[in-house]
Amino acid sequence: xxxxxxxLYFEFxxxxxxxxxxDMQRDFIEPxxxxxxxxxxxxxxxxxxxxxxxxxxxxxRAGGLVVHTREAHKPDLSDxxxxxRERGNPSLRIGDVGPMGRILVxxxxxxxxxPALAPAAGxxxxxxxxxxxxxxxxxxxxxxxxxxxxxxxxGVTTEVCxxxxxxxxxxxxxxxxxxxxxxxxYFPAFKTATVEMIRAQGAIVGWTCRSAALLAxxxx
Length: 220
Ligand code: TIU
Hints:
Layout: E1 2-3, E2 10-11, E3 17-22, H1 26-29, H2 34-37, H3 49-62, E4 65-71, H4 82-86, E5 97-98, E6 101-102, E7 124-128, H5 139-145, E8 150-156, H6 158-171, E9 175-184, H7 188-203, E10 207-209, H8 211-219
Parallel strand pairs: 3-4, 3-8, 4-7, 8-9, 9-10
Antiparallel strand pairs: 1-2, 5-6
Helix pairs in contact: 3-8
Bound molecules: tricarbonodiimidic diamide (TIU).
């Protein structure tokens, strides 16, 4: 399969490609979660949900592997470095009790993936303590064991967990494609800059395209 992307065509086989959905959890998308405690307007992120749903449905129909990630810490916070917990001046820190339960803690209501993109039985769900999906998760070993060589990324936020995950993937030898209308940032200028820097210099980190290009190829 070959789809028009920037800076060049992105070529992949569905059976060797995973759709990686980064951190589409209530903590970042709904009021009262980690995103809002950091001082962000979370309403911007909700807008990408329909586009993500369309891609997820098409990818499932094509029989492709799906990976969902959540930024999640253990209840005892043993995997949350003090530097992360103490950073900045949030209204609630990681582990504190907020309106959706303890902030960024596994198993709490706020840590669940939003219902519109809920994982289906058999799909991989990765709890990650860092920004990147590969750090301290075993994701690389899981993908390698399944013969995955290409990754298609969606999710939030573009310049934080999505970009970090794409860079980690790039260093591990994967070809990565970012779906531009299926990722969002609290800062529109950062999204624009991230999309441009990923695909610059001949896809130095990866490729980008809009989801319509992928949907068209999957339907053909
Ligand atoms: N703050 C922010 O933009 N993002 C994060 O803290 N985590 C993710 O991007 N998932």
